[in-house]
Amino acid sequence: MTWEKDNEFMDSSSEIFFDVPQNNWKKNIIVCISCLVLSFLLVIFFSGICLAFEPFQWSTQISRAVSSNSCNTQKICNEYLLLGNDPTTSMIVVFHSKNFLGDPIAYYGLSLGSKDYEIQGTMKKLNNVYIDRYIYSFNLYNLEPGSTYYVSYGDKGVNGMKIRTFPKNGNITFAVGGDMGTTETAVSLLESVAKQEPDFMFIGGDIAYSNSMCTCWDRWDKWFENWNRIMKSDDGYIIPLTVSIGNHDAGGYNRNKSEVKYYFDYFPISKESYHIHYFNLFKFLILDTHHVSHSSGIQQEWLVEKLSDSKYQEMPTIVGYHVPMYPASISEFGTERNEEIRTNWVPIFDEYNIGNETFRFADPIKLPLILYSY
After folding, report:
1. How far is residue 80 from each of residues 33, 125, 140, 160, measured CA to CA in Å?
2. In whole angstroms, what is the distance from residue 216 CA to residue 78 CA?
3. Alpha-carbon span 326 to 357, nearest angstrom
4. HSE-up (13 A, CA, CB side) for residue 343
């Protein structure tokens, strides 16, 4: 009796448990498939997110693919000029392409269309799954001081630029900026600078605000579009550029060089994050404030070596970098990073008579001088 009752109870419960309308399984399958499709579409749409600042902007791989980026539509894009080690005799020509253009060869001469000299450059393909990008660079050496050169490159030499070296004697004018980005204000400032036709411009870090994200290649392209369009003289000379690295270029502080996206590829001035230029009237040292290289150790030794070089020791000095040793903010003044920079550099600057930091000045520059951007 007990067994039969239990068995009846179990049969009854089984009937209740499985008493489900027969058409619900179809609805469940449709819901599951819809969720899977929606999840897949969301992953596709939001893949490769870039978060950039100045202005704040987020983009996805899809939105960047359909943007009006010049590098998406032109064979050659982002053509610019970097200062060489000695800008009286050397300059660095750089351009980008989404295509492999063959051997990196350029021609230059003293007259338009001339191919008096041929130079073998370097080509580097970005290690980036999001874009196909080739960086071509040409180090022009042994140029005549104070001379105009016409450089041609690309497919059959149809692309090119008009450049000039710095004079051995005479004044040099330059502009200083930083924390730039691609805002309307940044564009207006570039337009104001270009009207003054400086010999070159120094940008002290936080250039495009890409935050070293490999997905933010479009932000760099936008920055270069602004630069290419604006930074040239009325008679067609390209205004050269030199830079220091900032935290929004490196992606923070104390980064390994291999972690930094774009900066070293786009600015092949030096293999290190610090470098020097020698002008006719002064030397210009550009340093790294703990973004890739620490202020002590190898960079500090390099700084002393350059300042103590007997060949250039009597030459006045300008120093540029990103993070100030003496920031206006009290909270930033006391950070470990700022204290370390002061400890490692101020005694050296004092020994070699390099003056106080400045970024805004109305009076004529008096050397030595320190420039920073933060």
Report:
1. 51, 18, 13, 10
2. 15
3. 8
4. 10
Pair 89, 145: CB distance under 8 Å = yes
pLDDT of residue 49: 80
Q: Are 108 and 151 in contact (CB under 8 A)?
A: yes
**pTM value surpassing 0.85:** no
- CB neighbours of residue 270 within 10 Å: 12
For residue 202, CA distances in Å to 131, 188, 207 come to 28, 17, 11
Task: Answer for the pair 368, 281: CB distance below 8 angstroms, yes or no.
Answer: no
Q: What is the pLDDT of residue 37?
A: 63
Neighbour-count burial of 249, counting CB atoms closer than 10 A to its CB (0-12 exposed, 13-18 middle, 19+ buried): buried
Q: What span, in angstroms and rounded, lies between the C-alpha atoms of 243 and 255?
A: 18
Q: Find, among 83, 50, 44, the residue nearest to 69 by Cα.
A: 50
Indicate the helix (H) or strand (E) that contains 97.
strand 91-97
* Structure confidence at residue 31 (pLDDT): 72
CB 186 within 8 A of CB 171: no
pLDDT score for 231 = 97
pLDDT of residue 61: 73
pLDDT of residue 219: 92
In this prediction, residue 314 carries a pLDDT of: 85
Q: What pLDDT shows up at residue 28?
A: 73
- The Cα 180–Cα 256 span in angstroms is 24
What is the bridge-based pairing of β-strands 91-97 and 134-140? antiparallel
Name the nearest CA neighbour of 70 among 190, 176, 220.
220
Asked if 270 and 288 touch (Cβ cutoff 8 Å), the reply is no
Cα→Cα distances 287→7, 178, 270, Å: 86, 14, 12
Q: Residue 107: how many CB atoms within 10 A of its CB?
A: 18
Ranges in the chain, pLDDT < 70: 1-23, 37-47, 64, 66-68, 356-374
User: In angstroms, rounded to a whole number, what is the distance separating the alpha carbons of residues 311 and 369?
Assistant: 20
Q: What pLDDT sits at residue 369?
A: 54
- In the prediction, which pLDDT does 258 show? 93
